[in-house]
Specification:
Helices cover 67% and strands 2% of the residues. With 347 residues, the chain is mainly alpha-helical. The termini are close together.
Length: 347
């Protein structure tokens, strides 16, 4: 197991470097840098002024060198003007003599947001905490409901119950969040219909989560993800119920309830476990629509703001978090799958 974990961690590091480099290149293309220069300088800057500004702020070197600076493995850039004043990536105000040589992601320096005027690391972790609350309640609601639907449908394959539950699962998965969210707002939060049970926005939930301001966004996300888990659970349960040892248990006179609970359920939940774990990175990036729709200023809302305002440093910070969450979740999923299924051996 130790060798397996070391190999997986090594692959994770290489994957993280490759993915973050791709994101770095895409966000630092020349048109984007021109927008950054005009946003921080002057909208009416000429091409020569833009080139001069980019050179003074460290954007005129190769993409690999700048990625190394951002990562913190190579020394940060410095610039000395005609008056002898030194500026640079790691230099704040007049601390050129005391400034450290490297100041990148590995040193905890994620840059500064040009939109929010705050440190990127502080923004990302604050918004990530808000999204984590949303994801937690979504999982609490989504996973048990999906497992119950899948198990019930798989137990009674081909029956009316199976067809009904499968139809519900397909319908929830086929309905995008922006459709179900609007419908839920119109029905349960709009004064025109009369069912003003919940609030149409979740902004107040950032400070104080209540049943009224947090139910609709949680239900919107849970409905969309529930159908996929339920269908996978049904397929796994159906396969298990047709195996030889289940038939043997039936022939021995074991009750149907004991067959399901003691023999079929654990083996049937092995495959859905992987699917459930993969919902975590999906939730992290899939909440973009829901957070924007309900004005809940979490990680997804921040990502939209960063992309819309060409906030390069904030986009890179969000990408680092997203990559880490996806890779760690996949590692936990693989390790958990081995423990759940003793038939799997690690070579």
């Amino acid at each position: 197991m130790a060798i397996f974990l070391l190999r997986r961690i090594g692959v994770m590091l290489l994957t993280a470097i490759a993915l973050t480099f791709i994101v770095f290149v895409l966000t630092n293309l020349q048109p984007n840098l021109e927008k950054v220069a005009k946003f921080q300088g002057n909208v009416r800057m000429t091409d020569e002024e833009v080139t001069s500004w980019l050179g003074k702020n460290g954007y005129d070197r190769s993409m690999v060198a700048r990625y190394g600076e951002w990562l913190g493995v190579v020394p940060g850039w410095t610039y000395t003007d005609d008056a002898g004043k030194v500026t640079g990536r790691c230099i704040d105000d007049d601390n050129a003599d005391q400034a450290q040589t490297r100041c990148g992601v590995l040193q905890g320096e994620w840059g500064h947001s040009i939109v929010f005027k705050e440190d990127v690391r502080d923004i990302v972790f604050k918004r990530l905490g808000l999204t984590a609350k949303l994801m937690f309640w979504v999982m609490i609601l989504m996973v048990p409901m999906a497992l119950v639907l899948g198990v019930l449908a798989g137990m009674r394959e081909g029956t009316r119950l199976d067809r009904s539950l499968s139809t519900i699962s397909i319908a929830t998965t086929a309905t995008p969040e922006y459709v179900s969210g609007v419908i839920l707002i119109a029905v349960f939060a709009s004064s025109a219909v009369g069912l003003k049970w919940f609030k149409g926005t979740a902004t107040s939930a950032m400070d104080d989560i209540t049943f009224a301001n947090f139910t609709l966004p949680v239900v919107t996300i849970a409905l969309y993800g529930m159908g996929y888990i339920a269908r996978m659970t049904r397929a796994s349960m159906t396969e298990v119920m047709t195996t030889q040892y289940i038939r043997t248990a039936r022939l021995k006179g074991v009750s149907f309830t004991n067959i399901v609970l003691k023999h079929a359920l654990r083996n049937a939940l092995i495959a859905p476990f992987t699917v459930i774990m993969l919902q975590i990175p999906w939730l992290l990036n899939g909440v973009v629509i829901v957070e924007t729709l309900f004005n809940y200023k979490g990680f997804g809302w921040t990502l939209v703001q960063a992309a819309g305002n060409n906030d390069v440093e904030l986009l890179l910070g969000c990408s680092v978090v997203a990559v880490i969450v996806v890779l760690v979740t996949q590692l936990i999923s693989d390790v958990g799958y081995v423990f759940l299924n003793p038939r799997i051996r690690i070579s």
